[in-house]
Amino acid sequence: MITPLHPALPPPTSDILRFTTAGSVDDGKSTLIGRLLHDSHAVTDDQLAAVKRITAQRGEENLNLSLLTDGLRAEREQGITIDVAYRYFATARRKFIIADTPGHIQYTRNMVTGASTADLAIVLVDARKGISEQTRRHSLIASLLRIPHLVLCINKMDLVAWSEQRFADLVGEFSAFASRLDIADLKFIPISALHGDNVVTASARMPWHEGGTLLYHLETVYHGGTHNHIDARFPVQTVIRPNNDLHHDFRGLAGRIASGVFKPGDRVVVFPSGLETQIKTIQGPAGEVAEAFAPMSVVVTLSDDLDVSRGDMLAKPNNRPTQSQDIEAMICWLGEKPLQPEGNYLLRHTTRETRCRIQTVRYKMDLSTLHKKDGDLVIGPNDIGRIELRTATPLLFDPYRSNRGTGSFILIDEFTHATVGAGMIL
């Protein structure tokens, strides 16, 4: 493992940073990830040999590191990323999970998938082409998904003669755009993924940049986690009843804690019934635990024999989720067919699935200006807008801003069963 050449590194950490890459087509996302893997010695000898062989077969001049992430045959043949490619690597200071997401507009749904669990987003821009609509779309999605850190990497600086002025122009243009987004931490880094400048080691060809390398930023950025440990929410996934001689009367509620902390002895309310009871035990994979928190998967037993089933939720009496059939949300439309005003869809939220009806399309976002278009609107593929819907049964939710786990949902086409929308509750 290697460490970038920077004099004052903080103490080592053992946490995991999840980050996603995004940007327009051919901005160099896969090459960047390949460079990170290669230069941090996370590539095996046989993988490197295969990349060298394929590069030679294609007659390419430079080692094609994008092949380390473009695993599908269709991707290799076209030189693009279609699916979300997950990769893992580590340095002496931190472990990383990478989601390399597609740049083509028709694969925006994959970008939403890869970014939904990310702690940091890297958006690449081709220094020659500048800020594109996909750059703005992906940055807006990162903002809507509440990714706390965003890094804009100005790539292919070698093709603009390492120009400080070109870098400054793009920083100014994107800063003006990003000022209207909800991004807590924004950083700019000029790089050349092909040659490795400012990716892992500092570039001698861009001495004017004093902000450190990309890997240095990934290793040292503050990462406090994205899970809400205040609002205790436990959506029930299934009820376990073995009905055998050893566990004749056992009744456990299994699921993954969406947020907050639960302990044996805690008073809880079962929703939607509203009945109050007490947690008797909490069991994890290795046996009983003294406390459980997001994102642990556990089995909870209650002191009282209540009627609890899949889709119900446990919460604390003094901190209850919102319970309503009327939902207002931002939607990223992923379907091939436009959203149908007053159309019916299946809505999946935590462990509950219910039918819903689109009531109103409030507005659609203009990705170039971030202005809101209202009136007679069509929410088509890859559009982002604000909608109102009504569900057949009440949902138990929190605003996405405060709780990713209970503030998000997906819409499913009733006939094709395809996922057509990803929503963030306001």
Give an overview of the whole structure.
There is one protein chain. With 426 residues, the chain is of the alpha+beta class. The chain is 18% helix and 33% strand. Strand 12 (275-284) and strand 13 (287-288) form a beta hairpin. It is globular. The two termini are 43 Å apart.
Structural class: alpha+beta
Distance between the amino and carboxyl termini: 43 Å
Shape: globular
* Low-confidence runs: 1-14, 72-82
Number of alpha- plus pi-helical segments? 8
What number is the mean pLDDT?
A: 86
What would you report as the Rg, rounded to the nearest angstrom?
24 Å
Number of strands: 23
Percentage of residues assigned to helices: 10-25%
Largest sheet: 8 strands, antiparallel
- Strand content is 25-35%
Furnish the topology, listing elements before pairings:
Layout: E1 16-23, H1 29-39, H2 45-58, H3 73-78, E2 85-90, E3 95-100, H4 108-115, E4 120-126, H5 133-144, E5 149-155, H6 164-178, E6 185-190, H7 214-220, E7 233-235, E8 238-240, E9 252-256, E10 261-262, E11 267-271, E12 275-284, E13 287-288, E14 292-293, E15 297-302, E16 313-315, E17 322-333, E18 344-349, E19 352-365, E20 372-373, E21 384-397, H8 404-407, E22 408-412, E23 419-425
Parallel strand pairs: 1-3, 1-4, 4-5, 5-6
Antiparallel strand pairs: 2-3, 7-16, 8-9, 9-15, 10-14, 11-12, 11-16, 12-13, 12-15, 17-21, 17-23, 18-19, 18-22, 19-20, 19-21, 22-23
